[in-house]
Design brief:
Blueprint lengths: L4 E5 L3 H13 L12 E5 L6 H6 L4 H15 L4 E3 L9 H6 L4 E3 L1 H10 L5 E5 L2 H5 L4 H6 L4 E2 L3 H15 L3 H12 L8 E5 L4 H4 L1 H6 L4 E3 H16 L3
Parallel strand pairs: 1-2, 1-3, 3-4, 5-6, 5-7, 7-8
Amino acid sequence: MNKPIGILGGMGPQATVDAMSKIIKNTMAKCDQEHIPVITVSIPDIPDRTESILNHNDKPLKKMSEYLKILENANVGCIIIPCNTAHFWFNQLQERTHTKMISIIESAVKHIEKTDTREVCILATSATISTQLYQNKFAENNMKFSTPSSEVQQKIMDSIYKYKSGNYEESKEIINQVINLYELNSDRKFLLACTELPLILEEWIKSYPDLFIDATDLLIRNAIYWYQYEQKI
């Protein structure tokens, strides 16, 4: 058996569970023994990533580095982080471990680049937007993108935080208002660049699967491919 996939999670816990679930759903297995081994560290005391970035501090980095060592000591084959905003520190974390890390940003951008998507509307936390984690990559690849207005962005943050706090229905009502502001057409796709958004928008995704790009799902597919075909024992 290959080395397990390591998940640096807890940002938030439900997004971590969603990532684990997607590993199972995207793995062709006929029995328990054929599934991919996964070791998850989901310790949710990592400081709020958006608050830290907007306040110009690196408080989450210390905790993430600490928990990264747990995965490294567990001898995982690769490490993924099901949190887009945490990827602000991706390079610094990779420098602190010898274990390969797979980026959710790279996974999403490379996938979109291979499709005929004409425009990507980035739905993410305010920190992910402000640090231009996706915008810079799209610009490098001459890909057309857009981001919400400041007013709409605040609604997205409200929805994300409502979901994290357990106010699921209110969270979905707010995000419904956001999606309804846009004209739905095949020329524009929504990139769900916050790992809570696929959970909040679950019903929308079922109704309009071709209009949404789930960054978490793309990260998981890349990790599975690496586990099955690229890992060197």
